[in-house]
Amino acid sequence: MSEKILVVDDNRLNVRLLTNILEDENFTVFSADNGLPVLEMSRKLKPDVILLDIMMPGIDGFEVCKLLKSDYDVKDIPIIMVTAKTEGYDIKKALEYGAFDYIKKPIDEIEVIARVQSALRLKKYQHHLRQLSMKDGLTGLYNHSFLIELFDRELIKQRRDAGNIAFVMVDIDHFKEVNDTYGHVSGNMVLKELANILESSVREGDIVGRYGGEEFSIVLPGINKHNASLICDRIRATIEVSKFNIGSESIKITVSMGVFLKDIKDNITRNEMIQKADEVLYLAKNNGRNRIEMRTY
Q1: What distance, in Å, lies between the first and last C-alpha atoms of the chain?
Q2: Which residue, among 221, 193, 223, 197, has the nearest Cα to 207 in the 3D structure?
Q3: 3-state secondary structure of 178
Q4: Which has fewest Cβ within 10 Å: 27, 95, 216, 244?
Q5: Who contacts 75 (Cβ-Cβ below 8 Å, separation ≥6)?
């Protein structure tokens, strides 16, 4: 699939010229003639690069750039300012607001393609680094710090969209016995297989991460109590009947799960949600393990 470029300019001739140049290079081009819809368009389209005119009526390119860079969903999209204002002050201001580069007017075809390709190379490299920094080395799931970052993001969306959200703590029952009996290498094999089950058992848009040790966490955005219970019990039951391969033999394990569900009216922080999910996790363990306990605010 070709990369997507969003062109923002109030001058139709400039839009048409840039569109022709980019489409000749097999990019898919979208456009806006003012800055007002750009944030929403960027959230929806997820363009690979944004070409943004500085001088526009209403809201200029500087302010649009500032808005884009302050929004979690789109802040990593490279922005190239398109401008006839090539004084040092204006370029400095654009770069301080987070722009990656700039293109001078009148527009030169070779310069446009070179700077867009440069922005795409940077984005690809940043994506690679991001992947390395956000994954747990053993299981391939999100690591603790990135899990929390994504959880914060979903809480912001919950406030914006007025929906529910659940945080789930998952802990392997008697995992110390697995390590003591079969060794840590076998224990790691169990952790990796369990991670695969968790990741394949949730909905698209749900978030699964390794919280630490033998504890995993799941973020379930936009979910009610009934569906949260169904998903978690399906995961628990799948794990209960699975065989976990540890070299030449296989073993069985179970998990306990603590679920805390927050609706839009609940005034509770991220840390409080995690604490409450952890509390009901230990309630599940105290009540016999291989079970789910759920709490609402």
Answers
A1: 45
A2: 221
A3: helix
A4: 95
A5: 68, 69, 98
d(CA 281, CA 212): 14
Residue finishing a domain among 109, 133, 157 = 133
Q: Which of 214, 215, 240, 272 is catalytic?
A: 214
Tokens 């398109």 correspond to 82
Tell whether 155 and 78 lie within a shared domain: no
CATH code at 258? 3.30.70.270
Rounded distance between C-alpha atoms, residue 165 and residue 226, angstroms: 12
61-105: pLDDT as tens digits: 999 999 999 998 899 999 999 988 767 788 889 899 999 999 988
Query: Residue 250 falls within a domain, yes or no?
Result: yes
Confidence of residue 233 (pLDDT cuts 50, 70, 90): very high
Q: Does some domain include residue 138?
A: no
Number of H helices, E strands in the chain: 10, 12
The residues, ordered by sequence, that sit 6+ positions from 286 with a Cβ below 8 Å of its Cβ are none
Burial class, 57, CB count within 10 angstroms (exposed 0-12 / middle 13-18 / buried 19+): exposed
Is 214 assigned a catalytic role?
yes
Report CA dihedral (159, 63, 8, 109) to the nearest 10 degrees.
-130
pLDDT, tens only, 58-73: 899 999 999 999 998 8
For the chain, where are the alpha helices, taking DSSP H only? 12-24, 38-45, 61-69, 88-96, 109-134, 144-161, 175-182, 184-201, 225-241, 270-286
Q: Which domain holds residue 256?
A: 144-296
Q: Do residues 117 and 250 both lie within one domain? A: no
User: In Å, how far are 5, 20, 60, 184 from 9, measured between CA atoms?
Assistant: 13, 14, 10, 59
Cα separations (Å) of 274 from 28, 198, 216, 281? 42, 18, 12, 10
Q: What does the block give as tokens for 261? A: 């569900």
